[in-house]
């Protein structure tokens, strides 16, 4: 049977209010050896998949904040495990990534060796995008202290900066064995707050949606007239729904299996149920 999962099965809700906040973490206030960092009130964990990645602060002047040398960054401290791979992950907030800078080299810091970098964004363990960059890396220290800009607004000709994720995974390939990451620029939507999984639809004031999951038909109960919109997780508008005060019947059976987001105006804010 065709099923379109409309909200998360565990009733995970997200409330979105107003605008996104762009922040750049330069790691200058983080502790050497720390497996996590905090920026704009959000805690990110540094998860080592292959090699040992954490905050590096032992070599002043070897980082890059986007315009000048700085002192702290994430790296694998010349750990020989291969292929080096780590994630930046948070369980308290969702985020989007704009850009970051990476030093990619052999273990002896030779920038001229050939290599690749695979960038993967995940949400709840599901891959939302993945791309492998194989050209355009810095091969000398000047003018960016050996760092290469990884720009998700134009990664291999695609824009991935608007995709909501909770994990950014980076994996080196080819002859790259050392990685340093600095000037991590990301977006925190000011109202993206993950609430407890035991919340119910009725706890979101003014609206309830059921059943969830659904094979297509669903009921939307609201206290006000509204024009609702159904989006894919990458932000693409898929369907408009004209919602009247009371209980409304809707159907999304034409959509493929997946997770979708319903937006409805609620005063000056929006309610998103995912």
Automatic annotation (TrEMBL):
Q: Which intervals hold domain Secretion system C-terminal sorting?
A: 209-274
For whether the record's keyword set contains Secreted, the answer is no
Check the UniProt entry and state the signal peptide residues, or none: 1-20
- Listed Pfam families: Por_Secre_tail
Note the InterPro entries from the entry.
Secre_tail
Domain of life the protein comes from: Bacteria
Keyword Signal carried by entry: yes
Keywords of the record, alphabetical order, are: Signal
Q: What is this protein called?
A: Por secretion system C-terminal sorting domain
Give the source species: Chryseobacterium carnipullorum
């Amino acid at each position: 049977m065709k099923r379109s999962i409309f909200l998360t099965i565990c009733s995970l809700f997200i409330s979105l209010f107003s605008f996104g906040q762009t922040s750049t973490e330069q790691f200058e206030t983080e502790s050497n050896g720390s497996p996590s960092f905090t920026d704009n009130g959000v805690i990110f964990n540094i998860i080592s998949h292959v090699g040992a990645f954490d905050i590096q602060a032992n070599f002043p002047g070897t980082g890059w904040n986007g315009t000048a040398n700085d002192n702290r960054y994430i790296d694998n401290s010349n750990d020989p495990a291969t292929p080096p791979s780590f994630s930046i992950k948070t369980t308290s907030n969702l985020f989007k990534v704009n850009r970051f800078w990476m030093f990619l080299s052999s273990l002896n810091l030779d920038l001229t060796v050939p290599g690749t970098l695979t960038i993967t964004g995940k949400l709840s363990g599901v891959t939302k995008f993945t791309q492998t960059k194989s050209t355009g890396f810095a091969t000398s220290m000047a003018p960016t202290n050996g760092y290469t800009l990884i720009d998700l607004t134009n990664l291999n000709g695609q824009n991935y900066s608007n995709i909501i994720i909770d994990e950014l995974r980076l994996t080196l390939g080819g002859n790259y064995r050392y990685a340093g990451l600095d000037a991590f620029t990301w977006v925190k939507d000011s109202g993206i707050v993950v609430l407890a999984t035991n919340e119910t639809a009725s706890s979101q004031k003014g609206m309830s949606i059921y059943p969830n999951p659904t094979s297509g038909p669903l009921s939307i109960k609201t206290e006000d007239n509204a024009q609702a919109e159904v989006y894919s997780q990458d932000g693409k508008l898929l369907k408009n729904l004209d919602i009247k005060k009371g209980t409304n019947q809707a159907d999304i059976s034409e959509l493929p299996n997946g997770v979708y987001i319903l937006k409805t105006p609620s005063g000056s804010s929006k309610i998103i149920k995912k």
